[in-house]
Amino acid sequence: MQKFITKFPGVFILPYITFFLVNFSNGQSALDRYENVSLDELANPPEEDWLMWRRTSNHWGYSPLDQINKENVDNLRLAWAWTMEPGLQETTPLVRDGVMFLPQACDFIEAVDATDGTLLWEYRRPEVDHIASLSCANRNGTIYKDQLIIATRDAFLVSLNVITGDVTWERQIGDWTIGQHYSGGPQVLDGKIIAGMSGCYYINTGCWITAHDPDTGEELWRTNTVPKIGEPGGETWGDVPNEQRRGGSAWMPASYDPELDLIFQGIAVPIPWGSIQRDTRGGDVLYTNSTIAIDADTGEIAWYFQHIPGGNWDLDHPFERIVVESAVTPLEENVSWINPDIKSAESRKLITGIPGKPGIIWTLDARTGEFLWAKETNFQNVIVGVDIENHKGITNPQLDITEIRQRKMVCPSTTGGINWNSIAYSPQTNALYAPTNNVCMDYYLNPVNPTVGGYHSSAVSRKISVPEGDEQIGIFSAVDVSSGETLWSYKQRAAITGSVLTTGGGLAFVTDDARRLRAFDVDNGRILWEQILNSSAGGFPTTYSVDGTQYIAIAAGGGVSHRALTPEIQQRRGGNTLFVFRLP
Asked: Which of 334, 427, 441, 548 is the 20 to 30 A CA-CA neighbour of 379?
């Protein structure tokens, strides 16, 4: 990999190389003040930085910065913008010491000055002819020491030097030629790189979570997300041979609690989607659609909870697991399902949030996986109860599919009441902030052609609709973690499809299908500011501070969309752009 250094910003440079541009506005590059990131800083990040996907390993999506607050957010204005790489746009801007790192589609990485967008270096990984159509999604990297660590489309872990963009090490972990790839990026948890493999849609593919030495990439342990014959849980796949036990992608990042020394990972659907296609009728097909807790030292599964046993409808559960310590005082009138044995007001370490597409908040004991309570945030008809003793949800028997092309009205759709866009938590209110949607589908299964390269969507058909009598699709709600009470709920015609950022200024930022970025008051749901972007936002919003000035960053373009249900809401495709806002 060649590197060019130039003092002339107008110089043309060949593609597929790393290069520098120097910011001469103050005679220095923003990289000059970069200091290595320690493990202590990853565990307790400086307020001004955003070092990993949801800022902290508990996945709160919260920053304590409060310069932008309820009283002045209406003065927020554009500070700068940056045109990004075309393609699947789902990035998380990372910031350290005034330098922003932007992982983008197909493993294109840029480092820019976080105050004005001046380009500092770029890295472009050679493209591969990948059989997985969604493999170009690149949601995040992580910063550690002098490294930007990324997980790539061709199933490599790669360390880039933060000052130069040069590769310091890389290791192949999976096989991209059979469909494996990374989409949820790596995190450094408990001093180890933790990364979940995705792309297990094809014959002879399996998925896993691995731990690696962050200085070398050496693999430390590996945990399969689908157990093989003879392994614990393997019997839940019946007589299906190992090479046909597919699915279980870990396509979003894991969270971690240092006190319990447990890593919490969400696991996606089995493949093919229907039990009659897999010949697993009656089997739970672990650990698909589950939350698994992994011993950070050994990789052993400490406990699991399966939200949808069996799996028939492509309603993945790989999303963030939020770790919170809170009293547990749910009331039956506030929640959909409750554990009757909860001791009143008992404080526990919790796993909470919306782990899957049905849009249900699940709250579990983080130490044991014990079910505590669950609450619907949008209309759904898939989950009808909870088997507390056996750690799993109970699915609607009326939606069971017994024949190919048998039609069922399933809510939500495969796009989800929520998809990979994240909810957030605020310690100011002890509440979750959830962007969900009312959507349904007329769903049926097709015959399967189990060949390498045969994408899994060929096995299903669906027509999207809204629940009968409900034209308000988008819902943004605040739910108390302790009681399950809905503190407030805002509904609108346009789907709310962006990720949420909460801040110490008492704000919750979120975007929608109508291109609006809004700041809500976390206490009452009042809209305090909004800005129309060029496109809906597929990126994860972040906030950071440089030289005492707070910024809000959001990457627009792409993202989950329900605009097929709202033909009056139109926009052009593409337009990947980073927008950064600040006060005057």
From this structure: 427
